Amino acid sequence: MSRDPRKSVKDEEVLRQLVNEASLSLEDAALYLHLLRTGRLPLSESKKSAVLLDRGMAIVSGDGKAIVPVHPRLGIANYYRTWREAIMRQINERRMRVDKLILQLIPLYEAATEKRTDERGG
Description:
mainly alpha; Arc Repressor Mutant, subunit A; three-stranded antiparallel beta sheet; 5 helices; 3 strands; 68% helix; rod-shaped
């Protein structure tokens, strides 16, 4: 007798991982598991599924009548890719701010260095 794969997932562990690794709320993580198990939700629940839709973890079905899950390989990868892009954007923006700060501080350093040189030589 084959095992039902829907029962083999340890909900608590998977929910914790979805919260920690995919930054879903516990409610959204539970909804994602439910959606994976059932395969669809009525379109009337699209407001409840907004986070999953925004992250590319679920989509509106071709007939426009339901919310369906995206394969987890794509859904989680979609989230990770957008998360990584956002982090890289933050890193790049911070690097630009740091570069501007450095340019502001260089004249202070150079003026102090020049003053020390003048005091020693003068």
